[in-house]
Structures are given as C-alpha cells and as structure tokens.
Specification:
This protein is α+β, with helices and mostly antiparallel strands. It has 8 helices and 5 strands; from the N terminus they run H-H-H-H-H-E-E-H-E-E-E-H-H. It has 2 domains: 69 residues; 107 residues, no CATH class. A 5-stranded antiparallel β-sheet has the order 4-3-2-1-5. This is Putative membrane protein.
Length: 250
C-alpha cells in the first residue's frame, strides 16, 4: 500500500537526436560509397602493377644468373635494372624461334625429339607439355571463330558458347546425321577456361554479332557486363529467326 507511482527516470530523446542520427548515417553511407568507388578504380591498377612487378622479378631471378657478367649493365653502371631478364628472355626466345624455322633448327629439333621418344617417362611429360604449348600459343587462325547461342542443358534454355570449327574426321562420320555439325565450346562461369565440347547441328546454332571478347566478358561476369546494345542484334529477333528456320527445315 506504500507503493507510489514514480515517473520514469529514462531521459526522453531530444528533438535533435533523430536528425543527428540521420546525418551520421547519411555521412557514413556516402563515405562507404566513395571508398568502394575508389577501391574499384585502385584495385585493378594496383593488382596489375603488382603482378607485372612480381612476374618481372621472377623472370629476372631465373634468367639473369644464366647471363654472363660482361653482358649485365650493372657491372658498368652499378645499378640493378629490374626487367633486364625479361629483355634477355625475349631476345633469346626470338633467336630460338628464328632458328627453329630454318632447316638446321628443324633438324636439331627432330633429332632431340627422337632422343626424347626413347625415354618412357620423359617422353610422356614432353609430349604433354608440347601439346599444351601448341594449344595455348596457337596462331590466330585456330582461335574461336564467333560467339553463338546453343540450347543447353535442355530445350528452351540458352547458353553462350564459342564456335570452334566444323566437325571433322571420325566424330563427324560417326554422328548419325546428314547435316553439317559444328564443334562449339561451352564455357563455365566465372572461369571460361573450363567447359564442355559440344557437337551441335549447324541449324541449331545461333551466331551472335558480339565479338568473342564481349561474349567472354558476359560469361566471366555472370551476365552483369553485357555488350553495347547498339552493336548487338536483338536476341529475341535471333530466336524468332532460329524458330522460323527450324520450322522451315521441318
């Protein structure tokens, strides 16, 4: 019965608190957006410079110990020039390529490969590395021709792929179809270096107007970076064109 109702001692928020909180919240959001925008600009530049600097130093560390001291400028000027090993490597590679195209160079290459073919383990390693090098450093005429659309993994779902070549050899002969087949590479996202090799009828392939580089950006970015719409034909028009072609073939 002695209880009394005392007023609460909690301080009431003043009229100025909400505007202050809103001000600091807006300031923090603006600073965060500016920081992210700066990171988007700085990160690619910084990583590119760091990668070039690191690779250059690694090549220098491998190549320069093989170069005689009389050819090193640091013996004369006393300054270690970073990237000098890269220059020596490029000159050496050009010299080897020039010799490999000549008759004497081809003779020594075939002679060395015959020796390697007699070594079981080394032969497998050498042939595998040679095939990888020939694939990676192939000439431009063996690169992907165009970007395209194929229905994958089922009808009604379309995926971006790259046209490689017209299907040839035993694969083309064994496929039970009379029409021309095309070899296409279907890349994965976000790593376009892995994917699937598909043999698709030419009538089922929709060629895109975008370049191979633009299609690769589209795949790597998971569709976030799309090519300029003014340079690309409208996709629905291409789909309707493909449907009309399919009905005509039927």
């Amino acid at each position: 019965m002695f209880e009394q109702n005392h007023p609460s001692h909690r301080p009431e928020p003043s009229d100025g608190d909400p505007p202050q909180r809103g001000f600091f919240r807006a300031l923090f959001a603006r600073l965060r957006n500016n920081f992210i925008a700066g990171l988007v600009v700085i990160a690619p530049i910084g990583l590119t410079i760091w990668l070039i600097w690191t690779v250059t130093g690694w090549i220098d560390g491998v190549v320069l110990p093989l170069v005689p001291n009389k050819f090193k400028p640091e013996q004369y000027i006393g300054i270690d020039i970073r990237g000098l090993g890269v220059i020596f490597f490029l000159l050496f590679t050009l010299l080897v390529g020039w010799m490999a195209k000549g008759m004497i160079g081809r003779f020594f290459i075939h002679w060395g490969e015959r020796i390697v073919d007699q070594m079981p383990v080394i032969r497998s390693v050498y042939n595998g590395l040679k095939q990888i090098a020939e694939t990676v450093f192939a000439q431009s005429e063996t690169s992907f021709d165009k970007a395209c659309l194929v229905e994958y993994p089922r009808k009604g779902i379309w995926a971006v792929a790259f046209i490689s070549t017209a299907t040839k050899g035993e694969v083309n002969r064994r496929i039970p179809r009379d029409e021309q087949m095309i070899s296409v590479f279907l890349p994965t996202t976000p790593n376009p270096t892995s994917g699937f090799l598909l043999f698709v009828p030419q009538a089922d392939v929709i060629e895109l107007d975008m370049s191979v580089e633009e299609a690769a950006k589209l795949v790597i970015s998971a569709g976030l970076v799309a090519p300029d719409e003014d340079r690309v034909v409208d996709a629905p028009k291409m789909l309707r064109r493909a449907a009309q072609r399919a009905r005509a073939d039927a």
